[in-house]
Automatic annotation (TrEMBL):
<dbReference type="Pfam" id="PF00106">
    <property type="entry name" value="adh_short"/>
</dbReference>
<dbReference type="InterPro" id="IPR002347">
    <property type="entry name" value="SDR_fam"/>
</dbReference>
<dbReference type="InterPro" id="IPR036291">
    <property type="entry name" value="NAD(P)-bd_dom_sf"/>
</dbReference>
<protein>
    <submittedName>
        <fullName>Uncharacterized protein</fullName>
    </submittedName>
</protein>
<dbReference type="GO" id="GO:0016491">
    <property type="term" value="F:oxidoreductase activity"/>
</dbReference>
<keyword id="KW-0560">Oxidoreductase</keyword>
């Protein structure tokens, strides 16, 4: 066998070596991938998933609908959401799936969405803050906040606060933030530059937004621990979704090659979210960061409780949180 390989032209040998190494990496990734094994049913439970019309959010919705939950898709684009809703109902055979409009990049929209939920829903068992965007150009929203930062962090921050009362009433209940390992790609968090007031870099904004989700998870957990509401965050893995839709075309070309080789499918990428939403074994875990369905390490910065507290307070100011909107 070896002598046969050695007799092949050098380029073929190198080619085989590359294929072999890639194959091993792929097998390693498949073997270490976390899969939710819980068979938990969710009849009688209500779930809200933001950004559920595509990607990880949509696969999460299909899975939770299959378990019998009442699933509310919180989406900004009602046309896309209506198509997704039909898909989710068809695949899950659960008709208890609804669309409500939510644009996280508008504080007004978040308040309107929350008010409608509080009026129409008797309970809320699981809130999944999944929506997110990356690699978009600098833009301020109607609220004067940086758009990526508001979509990923400030919008979910306000939403969580507004729905906390209902979550408490429905306890035991769970809050889940879909963050990212990208939270660890910044070594600082400048609270004076949360909305790119001083400088702008699209990557840094994304890292800031994902770090903010981890920090707020850490800060909120002890504040609500006695109420039976848990809050955790997660990294879904590198997942083949539309998240890079706004990236430059050279990036997309590289991604087109790498996606099938190294990236999880959206269904695989949804597993840690689903695990946190349903598994009995995490019922009493709170304030943690998960990856591949296991507790994982965060960056040192993401463990800084002083920074977390300051970020929380600054975020309250940016979303103009009123005393009656605070539920702890
Ligand atoms: N894919 C990865 O490799 C990866 C890695 C780490 C973390 N994540 C995180 O995983 C989460 C889900 O992303 P994905 O990979 O599934 O990406 P995706 O396919 O692009 O889905 C993102 C979802 O978020 C929604 N969204 C974006 N901005 C919004 C806003 N302002 N208001 C309401 N909804 C908004 C999108 O709605 P529209 O369709 O209407 O735009 C879409 O439904 C994100 O938080 C992302 O940061 C992903
Ligand atoms: C979680 O805590 C509750 C109340 O203390 C307890 O009844 C339950 O067994 C715990 N579950 C797990 C998986 O530890």
């Amino acid at each position: 066998m070896l002598s046969f390989l050695c007799s092949l032209p050098i380029l073929v040998q190198i080619g085989l070596l590359i294929v072999g190494v890639l194959g091993c990496i792929k097998i390693y990734l498949k073997m270490t991938m976390g899969i939710c094994t819980s068979t938990k049913k969710l009849s009688g439970k209500t779930v809200i998933i933001t950004g559920a019309n595509t990607g990880i959010g949509k696969e999460t919705a299909i899975d939770l609908a299959k378990r019998g939950a009442r699933v509310i898709l919180a989406c900004r684009d009602l046309k896309k959401a209506a198509i997704a809703k039909d898909d989710i109902i068809r695949e899950s055979r659960n008709k208890n799936v609804f669309v409500r409009q939510l644009d996280l990049a508008s504080l007004k929209s978040v308040r309107k969405f929350a008010a409608e939920i509080l009026k129409s829903e008797l309970r809320l068992d699981i809130l999944i803050n999944n929506a997110g965007c990356a690699t978009i150009e600098k833009k301020l929203t109607e609220d004067g906040l940086e758009v990526q930062m508001q979509s990923n962090h400030f919008g979910h921050f306000l939403l969580t606060n507004l729905l906390l009362g209902l979550l408490k009433k429905s306890a035991p209940s769970r809050i889940i933030h879909v963050s990212s390992v990208a939270h660890a790609m910044t070594k600082t968090l400048d609270l004076n530059n949360l909305n790119s007031e001083l400088s702008y870099n699209t990557g840094t904004v994304y890292y800031y937004s994902k770090l903010s989700q981890v920090l707020c998870t850490r800060h909120l957990a002890p504040l609500i621990s006695s109420s039976g509401v848990t809050v955790n965050c997660l990294h879904p893995g590198a997942v083949e979704t539309e998240i890079f839709r706004n990236a430059p075309s050279w990036f997309k070309m590289i991604a087109a090659v790498c996606f099938p080789l190294f990236f999880k499918s959206a269904k695989e990428g949804a597993q840690t979210t689903i695990h946190l939403a349903v598994a009995d074994e995490v019922a009493n875990i709170t304030g943690e960061y998960f990856s591949d369905c296991k507790v994982a390490k965060t960056s040192k910065l993401a463990n800084d409780v002083g920074l977390a507290k300051k970020l929380w307070e600054v975020s309250e100011t940016f979303v103009n949180l009123k005393p009656e909107e605070r539920h702890f």
